Amino acid sequence: MIDLRVRERPDLRPTAAAAASNGQTDIVLMARGLSFWYGDTQVLDGIEIDVPGRQVTAIIGPSGCGKSTFLRCFNRMNELVPGTRVEGAVVFGGRQINDRAVDPVEVRRRIGMVFQKPNPFPKSIYDNVAYGPRVNGFRGSMDDIVESSLRRAALWNEVKDDLKKSGLALSGGQQQRLCIARALAVEPDVLLMDEPCSALDPIATTRIEDLIRELCEQLTIVIVTHNMQQAARVSDRTAFFTVTDAGCGILVEHSETQKLFTSPADERTEAYITGRFG
């Protein structure tokens, strides 16, 4: 478990709008007043959002609005880049995780990530999936973990007879599902997905989208996508980001996906989803 004391505690309660729209749904992730800089360049300004558990939340918006940067704030991947700075709170399980006292390795174990381009390790399929549990000192049956993770990623039936085969020898769609299996092997609570289908063909994209809908029955998913049709197909809630004249990303609105696409509350959202800008 992550254990920390919050130095400055902002209002960490779900917003009234989120609470009303989500009923009794637990809020798993929250951002409060989240701002982010690469060096002297501010990329995000004052983001406030609640992410409900066991749902898919999609992040959409024009290029350069900080969608991927925001996603990586949820598991502290951004701090691997020198010269970055974050202000505000990112809260997971009721604890602020962007406090330096929190172990980022533990954060990334519980909040996994799948990247835009499939990035399997230059190892066998088996060793790709087993890597995380081994690093974390897992002492149970590794065979069971590998099989379970590949099944959850809808890949087991395609590779069960070739587990010693290099992960790099798989097709692009299979490699992406292998990366998902690798993330699932350490039993995360949340899975972040940064445009996971942008490098895939339509058939592979459909398989990943079907998998996302299946996985959200077990864990919370946040997906960044440039494809609004994909957001409409796979997500329960959608957040629209845009970029200010100063080049800083802001959150315009966040609501149930159907509502956002059919009755957006902000004219900037409507202009984006109807293709008038972005």
What does this structure look like?
With 278 residues, the protein is α/β, with parallel strands linked by helices. The protein has helices spanning 16-22, 67-73, 104-110, 125-135, 142-152, 156-159, 172-184, 202-215, 228-234, 257-262, 267-273, and strands spanning 27-38, 41-52, 56-60, 84-92, 95-96, 111-114, 190-194, 220-224, 237-243, 249-256. The chain has a single domain (16-273), classed as P-loop containing nucleotide triphosphate hydrolases (Rossmann fold), CATH 3.40.50. The strands form two sheets. Strands 6-7-8-3-9-10 form a six-stranded mixed beta sheet, with helices on both faces. The protein has a four-stranded antiparallel beta sheet with strand order 2-1-4-5, with helices on one face.
- What order do the helices and strands follow? HEEEHEEHEHHHHEHEHEEHH
Strand count, sense and barrel status of the largest sheet are: 6 strands, mixed
Question: Beta-strand percentage?
Answer: 15-25%
Number of helices: 11
Q: Helix content range of the residues, please?
A: 25-40%
